[in-house]
Amino acid sequence: MTEPILNVLAERYASPAMCDLWSARGKVRMEREFWIAVLKGQRDLGLKIPEGVIEAYTAVLDEIDLEDIRRREAVTRHDVKARIESFCALAGHEHIHKGLTSRDLTENVEQLQVLRSLELIRFKSIAVLHQLGELAERTRNQVITARTHNVAAQPSTLGKRVAMFGQDLLCAVERLDDLLLRYPVRGLKGAVGTQLDQLTLFEGDVEKVRALEKRVVDHLGFSRLLHNVGQVYPRSLDFDVVSCLVQLASGPGSFAKTLRIMAGHETASEGFAKGQVGSSAMPHKMNSRSCERVNGFHVILKGYLGMAEGLAGDQWNEGDVSCSVVRRVMLPDAFFTLDGLFETFLTILKQFDWYEAVIARENQHYFPFLATTTLLMQAVRAGAGREAAHEAIKEHAVSTVLDLRQGKIARNDLVARLGNDPRLGLDHDQIESIIENAAALTGAANLQVEQFLADTEKLTNTAPEARTYQPGDIL
Amino acid sequence: MTEPILNVLAERYASPAMCDLWSARGKVRMEREFWIAVLKGQRDLGLKIPEGVIEAYTAVLDEIDLEDIRRREAVTRHDVKARIESFCALAGHEHIHKGLTSRDLTENVEQLQVLRSLELIRFKSIAVLHQLGELAERTRNQVITARTHNVAAQPSTLGKRVAMFGQDLLCAVERLDDLLLRYPVRGLKGAVGTQLDQLTLFEGDVEKVRALEKRVVDHLGFSRLLHNVGQVYPRSLDFDVVSCLVQLASGPGSFAKTLRIMAGHETASEGFAKGQVGSSAMPHKMNSRSCERVNGFHVILKGYLGMAEGLAGDQWNEGDVSCSVVRRVMLPDAFFTLDGLFETFLTILKQFDWYEAVIARENQHYFPFLATTTLLMQAVRAGAGREAAHEAIKEHAVSTVLDLRQGKIARNDLVARLGNDPRLGLDHDQIESIIENAAALTGAANLQVEQFLADTEKLTNTAPEARTYQPGDIL
Amino acid sequence: MTEPILNVLAERYASPAMCDLWSARGKVRMEREFWIAVLKGQRDLGLKIPEGVIEAYTAVLDEIDLEDIRRREAVTRHDVKARIESFCALAGHEHIHKGLTSRDLTENVEQLQVLRSLELIRFKSIAVLHQLGELAERTRNQVITARTHNVAAQPSTLGKRVAMFGQDLLCAVERLDDLLLRYPVRGLKGAVGTQLDQLTLFEGDVEKVRALEKRVVDHLGFSRLLHNVGQVYPRSLDFDVVSCLVQLASGPGSFAKTLRIMAGHETASEGFAKGQVGSSAMPHKMNSRSCERVNGFHVILKGYLGMAEGLAGDQWNEGDVSCSVVRRVMLPDAFFTLDGLFETFLTILKQFDWYEAVIARENQHYFPFLATTTLLMQAVRAGAGREAAHEAIKEHAVSTVLDLRQGKIARNDLVARLGNDPRLGLDHDQIESIIENAAALTGAANLQVEQFLADTEKLTNTAPEARTYQPGDIL
Amino acid sequence: MTEPILNVLAERYASPAMCDLWSARGKVRMEREFWIAVLKGQRDLGLKIPEGVIEAYTAVLDEIDLEDIRRREAVTRHDVKARIESFCALAGHEHIHKGLTSRDLTENVEQLQVLRSLELIRFKSIAVLHQLGELAERTRNQVITARTHNVAAQPSTLGKRVAMFGQDLLCAVERLDDLLLRYPVRGLKGAVGTQLDQLTLFEGDVEKVRALEKRVVDHLGFSRLLHNVGQVYPRSLDFDVVSCLVQLASGPGSFAKTLRIMAGHETASEGFAKGQVGSSAMPHKMNSRSCERVNGFHVILKGYLGMAEGLAGDQWNEGDVSCSVVRRVMLPDAFFTLDGLFETFLTILKQFDWYEAVIARENQHYFPFLATTTLLMQAVRAGAGREAAHEAIKEHAVSTVLDLRQGKIARNDLVARLGNDPRLGLDHDQIESIIENAAALTGAANLQVEQFLADTEKLTNTAPEARTYQPGDIL
C-alpha cells in the first residue's frame, strides 16, 4: 500500500498547535527530553554516567527518523524498545532508560501531552467565552421571542440567549480549572509501582529516589504526584479528562442547535457577513453547515468518552496494556475533536448574523399572545371586571389563532379584536402601547447579560491573549 | 394491573437513606417546604398573603396522598399542576406557586435531591476509603507476587495493592469535593430565565426579586447560584454529576476485578470469615459474587452516564422537557446504583480474607524467577564473570520453566540448579537467602501505604462518623 | 422504609401487557411452569417421580407469596434457592430442579421473557407502521416546503415526509424479524455447559438428555437451540436484542424531532384535535410534550444499550454473575422504554394535526425561490438569452431576500419583480402559473407513498389485529 | 505543519485490503466510476451527451491528485464540488453529476464502501471460525477444570471451551448474513428524496428515472433499494452496521479475556510456539499482549457505536450534514478496528499454546472436590449410609481446604483422607479410580465440539479461501 490513511480529525479540523502536541515526532522529542532529564538527575544524584554521554544524546535530540523506529518495532514487536534503540544508535551510547520500565516513560510523557492539551483547550475555551461576551454585548438590546418547547413563550433578548449558552461553558471551564489544579502525574514508579528499580540503582536510598522523581516531575511541569500506583496510573484520570472535554462541548452544542433552529426561521444565521446571502442560486438558503459540524463533533466526543469509560475501573492487578491501543486512539482524537469544535465555533461566532426585521415580524406575531396576562392586569386596573376581561381575552386569543391556522387572516390581529371589545375597556392605542411595551418585558435579561460579561471578563484576564485569538480557516 | 413493578436498584441494593431522598413522598415533601419557603419570602418582602394561609399549608405538610396526586395528573396530564392542586385542596387555599413556573419548582427541588445525594455519596466514599485504609494497614506486611499482564512481575505487598486501588478512589473523591464546591443552583428564573414573573409580582423591583431568590437558595442549602439560564439549568451539570459517580466507582471496580482474579488463585477471597469455606459441598468454591456485583454496578452506572450524555448540549432555545423522562430514570437510578455499589463493597472489605500459605506457595514458585536480576548482580559482586553468569541464569531459568510446563518437575527448583552451577559462584544457601530477601524486595511499598493512610486519615477527619459506618446486609 | 420505590418506566409509560411479562409474579409463574415441564419430561423419559408429586406442584402454581420468597432470600443470599424452597414448601415435595443448576432455570426463563417481549414489540411496531401508513395516506396531497439543513430546499408532500420516517422503521422491523427467526435458547446445559448433571441423572444416555431438552425448548416456544455454551448463553445475544430495540426507536425519534420543529413553525402539531388550540391562556402554544418524550425515551434506550455493551465479550471462562444485576435492570427497563415510546408515539400519530393555511403561507414564501431553476428553463424556452435570464433571476432573488431580511418588504414579491423584468420575457401570469406548478414539483413523492403503503400493508397482514390497536392513555 | 498525523488504526492494525476501501484515493476512484456509470445510463436512456465525453472522463479515471482537490475545497468550502471540479478539469468537460445532488453521489458511494467492508469482514470472520474449529479439534481431548465465577466448577475440555466462544461468533455471523441480505442502498433520490432533478432531466418520465436508478444500483452491486428517503438514507442503517461489528467482536473478546486468565495460571498462552518461553530474562512471563489488544479493540468499537447511536433517530426534516464529520471518522475507523481485531486474533489462534502438565496439576488439585457428588453416589451404591457418607465427605473436604489454605499440607490429599474413613466404605484405589474417571466427566463436551465443527464447516464452505487466509504480521 502506498498512500497513508490520514487522521481525519487532525488533518481537516484541529489546529496546528494541537496536532503538534500529538504528532509522532513531537512525542518522540518529548520522550527524549524526558530521558535526558532522568539521566541528568541520575548523574547529579551520584550515578556514574561517563563524560560526554548526556551531550551525545542531546546532540541528536532532533534527529528523529520515524521510519527507522518503525522498522525496529517490526522486529522487536515493542514500540518503546524501538525508540530506545533508535535514540541510542544515534547517540552511540546505551545509557538512557536506566532503572525505568516502558511505562515510566510512556505514562509520564502521555500525561504531559494531556496536560499541555488541556492547557491549550483552556485557552480556546476562554477565546470562545470572550467571543460569546462580545456577541452578547452586541445583541443585548435585540428583543426576541424566547421559546420553550420550541414555541413562543415570553420575550427575552438575543444577548440573554447568548449569555445562557455561555453560562453552560462557564460552568465547564470551572470544572476544567479544578481538573488542572488536581491532575496528578504518575512519576517514576517502576514495573509494579514500588519504585524497586530506581531504589536498586540508588542502593535503597529512598531520599535520592524521591529527589530524582521530583526533578523529573518538575521538568514535566506537574505540581501533583500520585503515590500509590501500579504499572499504570488509574485510567479513571483519562475518564476525568475526556468527560471534561465532553462537558466543554455542551454550551457550544446547545448554541449550535438553537442557531440551526433560528436559521430555519431566518431570524439568524452563521457564517454570512451582513448584507450577504446564502448562494446566488438559493439566496434564502442559509445552511448551518458549521453548526451542524459542531453538533457532529459533540457526538464524536461522546464516542471517545465511551472508550474512556471502557478503561476506567478495569485494572487487573498492577495493570496491563489492554488500554494501550484504546488510548492511542482516544486521547489524541478526543483533543483533536474538541479543538476542531472550538475552531469551528469561533468562526461561527465571528460571522454570526441576525435579522432584525425578521425578528420584529416574529415578535409582532407572538407578542399579542405573550402579553395577554399583562393586558388582563391593565384592564382590571382600568376598571374592567376580572372575569369578563379574562373571558374576552380568551375568546379573542383562541379565535385569532384558529383564524390564522385556517388562513382566514394572514397576520395576527388580536390587538384590533381586543380594542373593539368593550369588556376590556381599553382602546386600540392603549393595547398597542401595552404590546409594544411587551418588548420591554424582558425582565432581568439585561442585568443577567451584565453578569455574564463580568464573569467572562474576569476569566479572560487570566489568559488575555485569548481576546485576540483568531481561528484558522475552516473547510 | 395489580402488582406494582418495583425499582430493582432501590429495592435490592440501595440504602434506606438514599431511597428516602428519591421517594415520591420525600420529593413531595421537599416541594411543599420549597413552596412554603417561597411564600414566606414573598410575604416578608411585601406581597399580601392573607393571615393564616402559611399556617394552613404548614399544617398539612405531611398529609401526602400519592394516589390523589396520580388521579389528578391523569386528568391534567401535568404532574406539577396535580401536586399543586393536591396541596391546595388540603390547605384550603390557592396561594402557593405564585410567580413560579413548574420549572422554578422542579429544577430547584431536583437539584436539592442531587446535592443531598452527593453529600451522602461523599460520606460513603469516605467510609470506603477508611475501610481500605484499615485493610491496607492489616495487609501491609503480606508480601505478594505482584502481576502485570496478569503474570508475575515483581514482589509487592498486599497492603500496597489495596492502597493502589484506594488511590484511584482518592482522586475521585477530590473531584467530588470540587464538584460540591462548584455545584450551582438554578434559582427562581421564570419561564424563559428572565425572572419576569417574580419581577411582575414585585412590580419591577429587582432587589426584592434577588432577595427572594437568595432566601430560597439559602433554604435549599446551596452556596452558588446560576445567573443565566432558560427554562432549565444546563444539563451538562447532570452530566458532571453522573460522570463523577462513574469515576467514584472506578477504584472499587478495579479492586473487585483483581479480587475475582485472586480468588481464582485462592490467594484471597471476599465474604468468608477467617477459617470458613465456600460451602460444605464445594468448600473450595469461593465465588466472588459480591465483587461480580460491584463490576455489574459499574456497567449500569456507565449506562446512566450514556443517558446524561444524551441530554448535555441538546438544549433547544430556552429549553423543553425532552430531558424530563430521562432524568426521572437516570438521576435516582444512578445514585441508587453507586450507593448499592458502596454498600456491597463495604461488605467485601469487611469480610475480605487472604490465605498466607497459598500466597507463600505462589511466592516460592515465582520469586526465583523474579530475583534473577538480583542474583546476577550478587554473582558478579562475588567474582563471577558477568556474561557467564547471565548465560547460566538464562539457561536454568528457561529450562526450569520448560520442565515445569512439561511436567518433568512439580515445583520450581531453579534455586537448586543455580546452586549447582559453578559459573555463578554462589552456593545453595547464598542463593536461598537472596530469594528469601526477594520477599523484602518490595521497594517503597511500605512507605507508600503510609502515605495512603495519612491521606485517608486527613479526609476521614472531615466526616468522622464514616469511620464506624456499617453497611446494610446484602442480598 | 415504608414506601416502595416504583419502577418509573413501568408505572408511568409501559403497557400492562409488557409489565406483566416482567413482573416478579409473572416470572415466578413462568419458572414454576418450567420446573413442571422439566419434571414431566424427566418422568416420561424414565426418572422415578412418585405419584402425585407433579399434581401437588401444579396445584400451587399460582400461590405466589413474594414476601415469603424475599424472606428466604435474605437467609440464603441466593435468589433461586429461595424460590425453589418457597415452591417446594407449598407443594410439600422436593422434586423440582433435579439435575438443574440455577442458570438452567434462569437463563431459559429470561430468554422466554425476552422472546415474548420481542413479539409484543413487533406487534406494536406494526401498529405504528399501520398508523404511519394511514397518516401518509391522509397527507399525501399536502404539498410542503421540504427542508435540508432545516432550510427550504424543494417541494415535497407531507405524506412523503411521513413515509420517509416510516421507511426507517420498516428497515428496523426487518431486522427484528431476522432476529426473531434467529434467536436461540440456551437449553439445559448444566453448570459449565456440558450437560453433565442431566447425563448423570439419565446415566449417560445422551439421547434422553437431548429429548428432554427438546421438550423443554418446545415448551418455551423457541425454534432454535444453542449447542456450545457455558454457565450462561453469550451476552452478545442481549446486545443483539437491545440494539434492535434502539434501532426500532430511530424512525419515531426522527419523526418526533421533525414534528417539534414543525410545531415551531405552526405547520403541524401533535396531540390537538382539529380546531382545538394549546390552552386558553396561551392558545398559540402547541407544546410538543409527547414528541419530546419520544426523544427522551430514545436517549434512555441508548443508556440501556450501553449496559448491554458492557456485558458482551466479557465472559470469563464458563461465565459468572457479574452480568446479573445489570440484566435485572437493563432487560425489563429497555423493553418498558420502547413499549412506552410506542404507546406515546401511537397517541401522537392518532392526534397529529397539520395546518394547511400556515403551510400554504410557507410555500408562498419559499416556492418563488425554489422555482428559480424552472423559471430559467421556461424563460430560455420562451426565447430569452440564458445568461441574461440567469443574471436577472439572480439579481432579483438576492435583492428580495435582502429586502425581506431588512424589513423593506413584508412578503416575498419575487414574482412581481421577475414579471417586471424584460430580460426574462415572461409576464406576471406566466410566472405565477409556474410558481403554482412548483407545488406540483414534488417529483415521485406520490409514487413513493404508494410504495410505502404497499410495504406496510404487506407487513400488517402478518399481524392484522395491529390495525385496530389503541394505545393506552398517556400521562 | 509538516508531518501528517496518520490514522493509528489504519497504519498499525488494519489490513491493506481494508485500508484500500477507505483510502482517499480509493474513494475518489469509486466516485468517478459512479459518475461515469450515471453518465452512461443517462446517455443510453436518451440524454444528449456529446461524443467523446465519456471517453474523456474514463481516460483520466486514475489521475487522482488529492492535493489539487484539497486546494479546491479550501476555496469552495465544499468537498464534493472540489472533486467534481478536479475531475472535470482533467477531462476537459463538465458533464458529470447532472441531475445529481452531492448526496446522490456520497450516500451511494459510502454505502458501497460499507458493503464491501462488510463482505471483507464476513470473510475474516469465517477465517476466524475456521481457526477456532481447528483449535477445538486439536484440544478436544484436553480435559480441563472448567470455571464459573473464576473458580473450579466441573470438568470440561479445552476444545469445548474454544467451541463455546466460537458459538458466540457463529451467532454474530448469522446476524451479519442477515444484514448483508437486507442492506438497502439509497439510490438517486435528489435533494429531498423526491427524485425531482432526475425527473426534470428526463422530462417527467418516471420509468426512465427508475431504469437509470436500477442501472446504477446494479453497478454498485446492491440487491435492495430504499424507496422513501430524504437527502440521506436513515442513519439507523449505520447503527445497524456498527452494532453488528461490535457483536462480531464479542466472541473473540471473551476468548481473549479467558486466555489472559489462563495465562495467569500458566495453563495456556498466546503467541509462543511450543517449547518456547516468554523472554530469556523472564521466561515465565507469558504476557498476553495480543489478547489485551483484542480487548482494547472491543472497547474502541463500542466508542464508535456510541457515535452511530448519536446519529440514528436524529434526522431533522429531510436531513442535513450534522452526521457528516461523525461518519467520516466512525465508518472507516470502526471497520479498521474490527479488521485489526481479527488480524490480531488470527495470530493468537495460530500461536495458541497450552500446557498439559500444568493443566494436569490443576485438575489433580480440583478434581477430588469436583467429584464429591459422584463419590457420594458410589459410596451409597457400595452400601454406605447416605447421611454418614455425606457427613464424612463434607468433613474431609472442608478440612482439606482449610489445611491447604493454612499451609498445613502442600497438595490436595482428600483422596487419602476419604480412603482412610470407614464411613464411606471405599478404599483408596476405588476412590482414586473415581477421581481419575472424573477426568472423563466432561458430559457432552465432545459431542458439542462435533456440532461446532459441523456448523463451522458449513459456513466455511461459503467462503472456502478463508481456510487458508493468513493474517499479516502484527506489531
List the helices and strands and how they pair.
Four copies of one chain form a homotetramer.
Chain A: H1 8-13, H2 16-22, H3 24-44, H4 53-59, H5 66-76, H6 79-91, H7 102-139, E1 143-148, E2 151-157, H8 158-182, E3 184-185, H9 196-201, H10 206-220, E4 224-225, H11 236-248, H12 250-264, E5 268-269, H13 289-311, H14 324-351, E6 353-354, H15 356-370, H16 372-381, H17 386-405, H18 414-419, H19 428-438, H20 445-460
Which strand-content bin applies to the residues of chain A? under 5%
Q: Give the strand tally of chain A.
A: 6
Detail the poorly predicted runs of chain A. Answer: none
Strand arrangement in the largest pleated sheet of chain A: 1-2
Largest sheet of chain A: 2 strands, antiparallel
- Could you say which overall geometry of chain A the principal axes of the C-alpha atoms support? elongated
Largest interface: A-B, 88 and 88 residues
- Strand-pairing-aware structural class of chain A: mainly alpha
Number of helical elements of chain A: 20
Euclidean distance between termini CA atoms of chain A: 28 Å
Radius of gyration of chain A: 31 Å
Q: Give the ordered list of helices and strands of chain A.
A: HHHHHHHEEHEHHEHHEHHEHHHHHH
Notes on the structure:
Four copies of one chain form a homotetramer. By secondary structure, chain A is mainly alpha-helical. Helix content of chain A is 64%, strand content 4%. Chain A contains 20 helices and six strands. In chain A, a hairpin with a 2-residue loop joins strand 1 and strand 2 (151-157). In chain A, helix 11 packs parallel to helix 14 and helix 16 runs antiparallel to helix 17 (386-405). The longest helix of chain A is centred in the first third of the chain and has 38 residues, at 102-139. Chains A and C meet through strand 2, helix 12, helix 13, helix 15 and helix 17 of A and strand 2, helix 12, helix 13, helix 15 and helix 17 of C.
